[in-house]
Amino acid sequence: MEAVAKKDLVQTLNSKLGVPLGQGDRLVDALVDAVKDELLRGKQVVLKDFAAIKIVEKKAQIVKDPETGHQYISPAENVVSFVPIDSFQRAIEGAKLSSILLAVPENDPFARVIEFHFSRVGWTVHIVNDHPSAEKLLSKSGAYLTIVDHALPGSRELIQALKGSRSTSMVPLIALYPGDKDPEKCADFMVLGDEHLVEPFEVYTLLMLAESELARSSEEEIIFDQQVNFQFGTNEENLEKANELGNGLFKGSGLSEEDQVALSAAFREAVGNAAQHGNRDNPEKLIKVLYLLDKEKITVVVQDEGTGFDHESYTVRAETKTAEDAARERHEQGKVGGLGIKLMMRCADRLEYNDVGNMITLTKYLKAEKSNLESSTVSGTTL
User: Are both 371 and 297 inside the same structural domain?
Assistant: First the structure.
């Protein structure tokens, strides 16, 4: 969370009230000194529509050391009690905890229906009608749930922006689609929400889906810093979009520049293999990608709609033979390929296939020092 410094408060006084910067600086100092003096005299400072502040004694108590398990007495100490009051208290209670961002086209009659039903169960619904307004509202006050209607101009770009940013990625997002844009059937390049509904649907279904998404996200946001799902039909344009999106995600992940390049190379090979060998370049077949970022690592899952392959023979060869020997052996067998797996193994810290061989998982650890981690390994277990 970004901190607000004294200079920011002084600047606010200048921009809102026209107070000269030097005078504003002295005013802030004087206010802070006055509050401190009253508190140190044992008085409670009550600022209307803001907070009640006072110094209170925190009693001595028996606590347990989490590492050793030993108990000891924590001495009494004075602490500052800050209790929001009046309108500020109500604003805190109402902000984010019960707010929904609804991004829909202007004058959409269905928006009021959704707002009415969510309001009945205690939600505050903020309706926006364009991409910039949605991002501005989320960055300013946040929301616990975002609903985006595909009919909103720029809806795809909005979803990609929200899921592609670490600050908003873990806010649950439900996308609403017309029948011809059903993600289960559409071959367009799509960054997906966490859930989606295809028209027509009942508002009750949306309410239930929202409830389940809030429950899910409250658990996953403890584990993950970012989660992005995207899919696309198999063609060169979509492959380039996928690699561009992947590069952006890796750049914002905290990886070193060298590791970004390595993971980008492994990812490009993975989606290229999915297109060529998995989907046989069939534009109607989808490639699905899941990107996960946590405190320690990046996990990228790439799945195609092909029949799979005998990945074990390829991975064993990649582990035991040089690139030249592997290429020579494949040539003598009248076959091609296989070197991409060796490339991915070198560029990722872990490489795993599911049993069938149509889904690969690449793992890259964020820390450069990996002395306590296994070197590149391959697994054939189902994810």
Answer: yes
Higher pLDDT, 350 or 326: 350
Instruction: Classify residue 148 as exposed, middle or buried by CB count within 10 Å of its CB (0-12, 13-18, 19+).
Output: buried
pLDDT digits (tens, 9 = 90+) for 212-262: 888 888 777 788 999 999 999 999 999 999 999 999 999 999 999 999 999
What distance lies between CA 380 and its chain's CA centroid? 28
Domain annotation covers residue 39:
yes
Q: Would the CA dihedral through 326, 327, 329, 335 be positive or negative?
A: positive
Within-domain flag for 12: no
Judge whether residue 96 has pLDDT over 80: no
For residue 155, the domain's CATH number is 3.40.50.2300
For the chain, the maximum distance between any two Cα atoms, rounded to a whole number of angstroms, is 90
HSE (side-chain half, CA atoms, 13 Å) at 176: 23
Please give the single-letter amino acid code of residue 353. Answer: Y
Number of domains into which the chain is organized: 3
The range of the structural domain enclosing residue 267 comes to 236-379
pTM: predicted TM-score of the whole model, two decimal places: 0.69
Among residues 221, 247, 282, the one where a domain terminates is 221
- Give the count of beta carbons closer than 10 Å to the beta carbon of residue 306: 21
The verdict on residue 104 lying in a domain is: yes
CA distance 140 to 2: 12
